[in-house]
Every structure is written in C-alpha cells, then in structure tokens.
Amino acid sequence: MAEKSSEKKSSCAQKNRKTAPKKKKKYDVSFYHDWCKACGICMAFCPQKIIEADKNGKPVISEKDKCVGCRFCEIHCPDFAITVSDRKLHRRRNDV
Ligand code: SF4
Ligand code: SF4
Asked: Which of 15, 30, 90, 94: CA 20 to 30 A from 50?
C-alpha cells in the first residue's frame, strides 16, 4: 500500500517537473510599398496592433518582435503587398 502511494507521488512529481521554456518563434513582415494602395486593411486586422501608417498612409511595423506570425495581414491584403516569413538567424562566415 505504502509502495503504491510513493509511486503515485513520484509520477505526480514527474508531471509537475518544470520543463525548459520554449524559445518564441520570430517573424519578419515585408511590405511592397509599390503595390500598396494604403487601404489600411492590414492595420485593422493585425491582432497585435503593430502595423502603423507612415506619413503616406503606407504600413510599417512598429514592434517587429511582437508579431505572432498569424499572417492575417498577408491573407487580407487585396494587393498581395505583404509577405510574412519565419525569421532566420543570419551568421557571419567566421562565426562559430
Ligand atoms: S492591406 Fe495591403 S494594400 Fe492595404 S495598406 Fe496594407 S499592405 Fe497596403
Ligand atoms: S502576421 Fe499577424 S501579428 Fe504579424 S504583423 Fe501580420 S497580422 Fe500582425
């Protein structure tokens, strides 16, 4: 009986053991301003509210690390002027 309860405790402890925090994925958002007609749809749809208008009303990202990669902006842009991509690490040739 005592053995069973200690087994239970150890399995609970395993479940509650803290795991290393996952690294948050990051994304890059590019705008092709030549194709953009400054309609503002991407700004309205972004759930993070990180797309702002520049002085010409064209979109710019205010805090790029806050992008969650949902691609709402890319999907809803009527002029295909947005590309969202996974951010990749760029290393210099001599880096180890
Ligand atoms: S949705 Fe497309 S066309 Fe409209 S402002 Fe954004 S990038 Fe420009
Ligand atoms: S991918 Fe999503 S969070 Fe990132 S800028 Fe576009 S709408 Fe905003």
From this structure: 90
Per-residue model confidence as pLDDT tens digits over 2-25: 455 555 555 555 555 667 777 789
Within 8 A by CB and 6+ apart from 45, the residues are 72, 73, 76
Instruction: Provide the CATH topology of domain 24-86.
Output: Alpha-Beta Plaits (3.30.70)
Specify the pTM: 0.75
Return the structure tokens found at 43.
Answer: 């700004």
Of 46, 82, 87, the one to substitute when testing ligand 2's pocket (max ligand atoms within 8 A of C-beta) is 46
Rounded distance from Cα 92 to ligand 2 centre (Å): 28
